[in-house]
Design brief:
The protein has 3 helices and 10 strands. By secondary structure, it is α+β, with helices and mostly antiparallel strands. It has 2 domains: about 50 residues, no CATH class; about 80 residues, OB fold (Dihydrolipoamide Acetyltransferase, E2P), CATH 2.40.50.100. The radius of gyration is 19 Å and the shape is elongated.
């Protein structure tokens, strides 16, 4: 049983690592019975090691690193940042009207979008009243903690 269990652990780790690559997440953790497995990697944009990145050639990373300093949406005073890792949904149901879109007037506390994390739907409220000037995420795509989601001015 021990050798089979180890083989299954290796398969589980490989599957979780593959899931990280497919979803773009940087960390995933699973717990079964008395075993907990956490697989994590450094985000490509943060890593400064000289190991080639499988998802994007270094030539593609370099141009993206320079311009965002001037126009980094996370530094915008109206940025709404993701409070968690999960999958972002702009509407309450598939094909539904988005909670907020560019040009939408919102009040502090209005739902801007939903982030699904651990099978829980978390409503993300507007931190202030204003107008949505940018939507920085795509419906149904993964988001990271601290990632800018929208700009409300």
């Amino acid at each position: 049983m021990s050798a089979d269990h180890k083989l299954n652990d290796h398969d589980l780790i490989r599957d979780l690592a593959k899931l990280l690559d497919e979803t773009g997440l940087t960390e995933i953790e699973i717990e079964r019975d008395d075993t907990r497995v956490r697989v994590a990697r450094q985000p490509a944009a943060v890593s400064n090691v000289s190991v080639p990145v499988a998802a994007a050639p270094a030539a593609m990373l370099q141009p993206a690193a320079a311009p965002p300093r001037a126009a980094d949406p996370s530094q915008h005073p109206g940025a709404v940042l993701s409070p968690m890792v999960g999958t972002a949904y702009r509407a309450g149901e598939p094909g539904g009207m988005p909670f907020a879109d560019v040009g939408s007037k919102v009040k502090a506390g209005d739902t801007l979008l939903i982030i699904e994390a651990m099978k829980t739907m978390n409503h993300i409220p507007a931190p202030r009243s204003g107008t949505v000037t940018q939507v920085l995420i795509e419906d149904g795509h993964p988001v990271e903690f601290g990632e800018p989601l929208m700009i409300v001015e």
